[in-house]
Write a structure and sequence with these properties.
145 residues; alpha+beta; Sufe protein. Chain: A; 3-stranded antiparallel β-sheet; SUF system NifU family Fe-S cluster assembly protein
């Protein structure tokens, strides 16, 4: 998969940066939401902890192991949802899911680094890697409510 497309190169750099320097790595103590999920197909695993106060995600951390796509997606997701309301975070998860399925998505919202994962939609086997953290977040927020 070599490409001379500058956007592909930029996206790969963003993904590798999040993989090598994950944001919000760790575990929150005394957290209100604690979810473990894994992708048995390729062995990716995530442990997500979130603090939700008054309908807002005030803090979020993750630990886990897996490929660069799943770990960088988790890092980007934690950055994207921190400080957001539960509704905003769930809406982001829907947008991300649509993006992964190659559907039209609401692009009024600034996705920031998350857009770097757009190319994953062309590799169906990798979509589960990219969505693992998002599914964990959705599951955790639905259980919390």
């Amino acid at each position: 998969m070599s490409s001379n497309n500058p956007l592909d190169m930029l996206y790969r750099q963003v993904i590798m940066d999040h993989y090598k320097n994950p944001r919000n790595r760790g575990v929150l103590e005394g957290n209100s939401v604690d979810i473990n999920m894994n992708n048995p197909t390729c062995g990716d695993r995530i442990h997500l902890t979130m603090k939700v106060e008054d309908g807002k995600i005030t803090d979020v951390k993750f630990e886990g192991e897996g490929c660069s796509i799943s770990m960088s997606s988790a890092s980007m997701m934690t950055q994207a949802i921190k400080g957001k309301t539960v509704e905003e975070a769930l809406k982001l998860a829907t947008i991300f899911s649509d993006m992964m399925q190659g559907k039209e998505y609401d692009d009024d919202i600034d996705l920031g680094d998350i857009e770097a994962l757009q190319g994953v939609s062309k590799f169906p086997a990798r979509i589960k890697c990219a969505t693992l953290a998002w599914k964990a977040m959705e599951k955790g927020l639905h259980q919390h409510h």
